[in-house]
Amino acid sequence: MLGHTFKSQADTFQMPVEFKGISLTSKRFIQWLNLNNIVPGYYGVNSIDLMADLYHKGVHTLVTDRPDLAKQFKETLKKVKYKPRS
Predict the structure, then answer these.
(1) What is the domain count for the chain?
(2) Do the beta carbons of residue 8 and residue 38 sit within 8 Å?
(3) How far apart are the C-alpha atoms of 40 and 11, rounded to whole Å?
(4) Angle at CA 15, nearest 5°, toward 59 and 40?
(5) First vs last C-alpha separation in the chain
(6) Residue 9, domain member (yes or no)
(7) Which of 14, 29, 44, 60 has the CA that lies 20 to 30 A from 36?
(8) pTM score, two decimals?
(9) Running DSSP on this structure, what letter comes out for residue 7?
(10) What DSSP state is assigned to residue 82?
(11) 26-83 pLDDT, tens per residue?
């Protein structure tokens, strides 16, 4: 990884979950973004399982084409008493 030599010109990265067959959702990458004060966000997140996986890895922004699934995911978080990140 780039360690602390990387200087971001952005406060957030919005990216797809995959690019040219390469997954961009590894826990290590998401942790690295957070450690460097870069808010990780993903678009095209269209399954509840993927939403949960990314949420638990520390992703701050989830964009979906399925608002019905987003609502269901949000309700699931309330039931298990997870607090949304601020």
Answers:
(1) 1
(2) yes
(3) 9
(4) 25
(5) 27
(6) no
(7) 44
(8) 0.79
(9) -
(10) P
(11) 999 999 999 988 999 999 999 999 999 999 999 999 999 999 999 999 998 888 765 5
The backbone region for 29, taken as left when phi is positive above 0, alpha when psi lies in -120 to 50, beta otherwise, is alpha
Nearest to 72 by CA among 33, 37, 45: 45
- Residue 2: inside a domain, yes or no? no
The pLDDT score that the predictor gives to residue 78 is 84
d(CA 14, CA 77): 23
Domain residue limits at 19: 14-81
Is 48 inside a domain boundary?
yes
Confirm if 53 and 42 have CB atoms less than 8 A apart.
Answer: no
* Residue whose entry in the numeric block shows the structure tokens 């399954």: 47
**Residue 4 belongs to some domain of the structure:** no
Sheet strand arrangement including 12-16: 12-16, 39-43, 61-63
Tokens of 20: 């040219």
Look at residue 36 in the predicted model and tell me its pLDDT.
Answer: 87
Confirm if 48 and 75 have CB atoms less than 8 A apart: no
